[in-house]
Each structure stands twice: as C-alpha cells, then as structure tokens.
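Batch manifest line 740
LIGAND: S-adenosylmethionine
JOB: complex structure
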Amino acid sequence: MHPPPAPLSPTPSTSPSDNDDDNDVTLCTDCSPASTSTAAARTSPSSLDTLAQNENRYPEGLAWQFNVPKKVLRKSPEFKKFHSFLVFETEVGNVSRQEAVSMLPPLFLDVLPHHKVLDMCAAPGSKTAQLLEALHLADEPTTSSIPPGLLIANDSDYKRTHLLIHQSARLPSPALMVTNVDASIFPVLRLPAGQGSKMEPLLFDRILCDVPCSGDGTIRKNVGIWKYWNPMDGNGLHGLQLRILQRAMRMLHSDGRLVYSTCSLNPVENEAVIAEALRTIPGFELVDVSTSLPTLQRCPGMTAWVPTTDRNLMFHDTYEAYIASIPEAKRKEAKMGKSHWPPPAEEVKGLHLDRCMRIYPHLQDTGGFFVAVLQRKSAGKAASASPSSAVKRTADELPDVEESEAKKAKLEADVVASKDEPMDQDTPAETPTEATPAPEAAPKGDGNVKGKGKERQDGDSRFKENPYTYIPSDDVIVQSCVRQLSLKPTFPAANVLVRNPSGEPSRSLYLTNDLVHAVLDANDFKKMRLMTAGTKIFTKQDSGFGRANKNAAAAKEGEEKVEKEAVESQWRLLSEGLPVVLPYVEPASIIEAELASGALRTLVEGYYPLTSTFAEVFRVLVEVKSLGSHVVRFKTGTGDGASLTHDLVLPIWKSQHSVSLMIDKKAKSAMSLRVFGEDLTVAGREAAAKQKKPTASGVSAANTPAVASGASGAAIPAAASGASAVSTPAPVAVAGEAGA
Ligand SMILES: C[S@@+](CC[C@H](N)C(=O)[O-])C[C@H]1O[C@@H](n2cnc3c(N)ncnc32)[C@H](O)[C@@H]1O
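JOB STATUS: finished
ARTIFACT:
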C-alpha cells in the first residue's frame, strides 16, 4: 500500500486551447492532440512546495508543486538554474508535468507489482507513468525490477500512442505493452489456463478509464474552453464514455478495482455514466473511498441532475418530456437517450452515487475533477441485487466485441469519433531516441515471413506492424551479449524478442517479463494494433565502432576469433536497458570507478576520449577489458568537483583507442548538470560560449549562460542524480509548470 498522499493542491494554470473549433464537441487538453506541450502556471506566491517533504503526501514524496507563472519561471534570473533543470530533466524524461488533480486516479487504483493493469485511454501517458511507477515499486535507484504483473496502455488515437510511448520511455519496463484500439471494443486477450493448452480470458486486476471528456473542469487553465464550450459537448460524449466503462467492467477480475475519471464536472459525463453502467452490468458497486487520501477535500457525487438538451440551454425534467418535445417524425434522430437523465429516485438510492468524488476548483485551488471507484460486489451482495433494467449479461461472460458491434458503436459515437480522429499536423511526433523503443521499420507486404522455428507473433497485415518474435535463449547473438556483459545464468534470455520480418536479431533486442511473453504467445493481435511490448535492451552498434573493432580484431587474430569478437563487439547495452539488465551483470565485471579519478569528467567532456587520456587508475581498469560494451559504476561520494548522492551506473563502449559514454546527448547534458553543476559536454560548452559572445551592442547574448549551472542539489531528489537513461529514471512528477 502506498502511504496516503495529502491533497495535491496544484497550481491552476493557463494555456492556449488545444481544442478543435471545427467540431461540435470540445475535448479536455488531456484528450487533445497537443496537450503535453501546453499549460502554464497562473498564480501567486513564488514557492517551490516540495510535496516530498511530507511522507503523507504523494507516495515516496515524488511530486512537487511549483506555483510560479510560466513567464516568471522563464525570465527571472532567480529561476534560471531551476528552469534549466526542468528543461533538461523533462526532455530526458525524468520529470513530467501534470495537473495535480489528474494524479488522483492512479492513486485510487492502488496498483501492486503483480497486478494485471489496463489503462484504457492512456495517451499522452501521464497516468500511465504513475501506474508504471506503482508496478515498479521494487525498483532501486540504479536498478529496475522486473515486475511479475502487466500494464497495457491503450489509446484509440494512433498518433497519440506515440506520445504515450515517449512518456513511458522514462520508465522502461519489461511489463509494458502499448496498444491502439477503440477501448469500447477492446478485444478479449487470452492466457493459458494452468499447464494445459486450454485458454482463458485475461481479466485485469486494475483498470483505469480516464475517458475522453469535455474538459470543462479545466476551464481555469484552458481558457479556450470558455469560447468553444457548449452544453451539447458532454451529451455527445456520454455514449462513448459509457461504452468504454462497460467494456472495462466486463474485463475486470472478480477481486479487481476500476477507476473512472474525467476532468469534467458535468453529471452527464460522470454520475449519469456510472449510474447507467451499474444498471446495465450487474454485480458492481461504487467503493466508499471517503477515508482514503483523508486530507483531499471533495464533494459527494450528485444524485439528481437535469441535462441541457440543446445549445440554447433548453432543459427537460425527464427523458419522456424531452422526447415529447420532439416532433414524432424526428424522434428517431434524438441526440439524447434515457441514460442522460438520472434513474428513478428509488433506484438512485441503491447505486450510492454519493460515493463518487467531485473535486471543485475552490476546494483546494485545483482544476475540477471527477473520480469514481468501482469493484465487484461480494458474492452475497451480488446475489441479492437485481437491477431492474440490467442487460442480461454478466461481467464474467466477457463477450468479445464483434466487428459489426464495433461499427455500430462507432456510428453512435458520430460526434465523438469526428473529434478524436484528426490530429494537428504540428503536434510533436515522437522522435525515436535511444530511450524510445520505436518499432523497427515495417516490412513491405504483410510482414508475415515465418521465423525459423522460433516463437512468433504474426500480427495483422492491416496494422503494418512488425511481428514480435521471441528468439531462442541459446541464439548466438543473445549468448554473445550474455558473454560480453558477463550476465548471470539467471538472466531471462528466454524473454528476449526481436521486431522485424525475419524474426532474426538484426537491429534491436527487447526484453519482456514472463506474463507479457505469455500474452504475446497466446494472442494474434488481429483486432488491435500492438505498438510496443517490453523494453529495448541491446542494439547493434552499426557505426564506425563496430566496424573499427572488427577490423582491429581481424588484424590481430585468426579467423575464428575475429568472427566471435566482431559479433560480441557489435552489440551494445542501451542506456534505457541498463537498469533492467544491471541486476544480472556479474558484479566483478563492472568497472568500479571513483569520481576522484576524473574519469567521469573525461567521459562527459568528449565524444570519443582516447584511452590514454584517462588517469591511470581508470585506464588500467579499462585496458584489461575486451572491445565493446561494458558497464561502469561511479560510487556515491564527492570528488573532481562533482557530487553523487547515489551510485551512478553508465554504459560505455571500448574501442581500439578510445572509451565512450553511451548515453544520448541530452541525457549527458542533464547528467552533467546534476553531477557537476554545469553542462560540460561539447554541446553545452558550445552553447555557453555562444551566449557569452558579445553582440554588436557589446552586450553578451544573454544575461546568463544558456545552460546555467544545474539546479541546486537540494532541489533535485536524490533518486534523480543518476543519469536519466542510465540509472533508474527518477519517477518525478511536477504539478504545475515544467517550463519545457
Ligand atoms: C483524458 S485523455 C487521457 C489522458 C491520459 N489518461 C493521461 O493521463 O495522460 C482521453 C484519451 O482518450 C483517447 N480516446 C478517445 N476515444 C477513445 C476510445 N474510443 N478508445 C480509447 N481511447 C480513446 C483520446 O485519444 C485521449 O488520449
């Protein structure tokens, strides 16, 4: 159990609207394509309120609130260092910003490492990141655990799933799968039932339905909503929200827990959805969570409401009155259904809608939010309950959704569908980096080339995704990686997969856990697009490094040795894979270094520092190593102008004459700022020099260096002082302004 956090009194913020004014329904920023790049703090006292100071606040003290307007943060010299810190850490993924109330739903889900979790509407992935952190409860500052559970993060918007992949890249996980399908028709996945070949449906222990909504709860920060909001927004979304929730309920395990949330305060998008779902799917109840997060100020859910029925703020007390107001010939086209209104009073009582939570902006100076926690009724209660209008289908039956039903659902959601599909052209697309396991290029044709006797997933040609192929644990490449890094026999080599048409290791090796392996083996993914599974751990070193090493080896050794050394030296451990692989690396094979040796500075300052330029104490350690991929650990302490609050573990590459740090440029700069207090990298020095250069007016280009010395150690959590993609990325959430 997490320690209960206190209210996350977040910063209200302002931002340009992300809403698409061409459509009837406006969506919240979280639901809108460019949401991750907006939002600015609006208010008041300049304070860095670290929630970390109080154990009772956010779990592990990993959330901070920063109440400073974006402009102030960017322009004030006092915030320069902090701003640099935020920019770098956000870019490398150690820090993510989100509205504080948005952080509530995952807390109410109470995820544990063994849980099977489904995040139905996950993009851009802020809550997915929180769920991942919970799944990775056993992680240490420098190593990542391999949780036995599973997180499937899904979104129906293909482009937004890339944002999701990018967000979750800060916590690379062998337990993560990202899928792309309409959540209201999420297909049944299967798993082997016990030892035999019998399959059973995969039911989830935890499901988050953070559904698309009108976003009227964010009206303080998204001022554009004032302009485009209209009363029919919520009415148009109600049907889709309901279908997503109903689908989730059918996929929930009997002991499971489900959280439904929106950033809307419209009862039609909230209590009306919950009420109808409870009425139509028997055996569920709202959980009374009034004692959880006790200091969170909230109001009970509404038990009565009257929806608006058109843009001109018409109201009808009942559905019947509404229908009666429509000319008979047009009744079939009525935009609203019975479920937009509350059920009859006597039925409402039994639903306990007051157990829903409404978080109003004035309660603790936050955005508005709605959260409801659902679970199956215990056996006794379920048997005695008989919802009058219940559809005669229980959650246990878990029917798959057929294509025709899917189409029908799509038609019903006409307004909504038209909102969710388009994506602004200028929305930042995912840039594949080391830390973003982008799938390898899709094959031409259907991509269904058979792997040679290997376990494989063919996928569906409709999706043009590369297949997921587990390679045998004795594969020559896998074994060469095992040898090169001196991995222990416990390394789960059977869970290494590749993603390319041939099913052979050609560019990248990914690692999943056993459960993801079982899910991939048991399902064909014909009804949904599987975007990623597991985390990338090794990649082929195709650059001059590999070739140079091969040539060097060829020059000095016989043919056979050349082949072996060339293979081993051509694959390298990725920085994002290091935390997962590290527990399996034989400790004796790790190069143990001290900050005082000056080696870290040398590695940071140059791209390919010559081995001869390192101080002897480090040089001798490297010289005995083979060419290729290695791991170096700098121990906690101080020295050479640097400070480490915990060990820093890094992947390096040994060439014939040089040793290089294998982390990407931004991660290197971020790490340098954290450890040395300044950006010592080539790029950082160049940027600083540029800033200092006098302009025509004789004034330096900026008041302060472009990359000011890093944020003070005090502002940086201990866990973050490892390099971003190198030690376990620090799960830091910043409510309010991230300033990126
Ligand atoms: C409120 S946002 C989710 C925010 C996300 N949970 C987070 O914390 O970053 C709603 C998401 O639902 C997605 N969506 C809309 N319709 C959907 C559907 N039918 N199935 C799955 N996702 C859908 C949108 O693309 C959007 O990303």
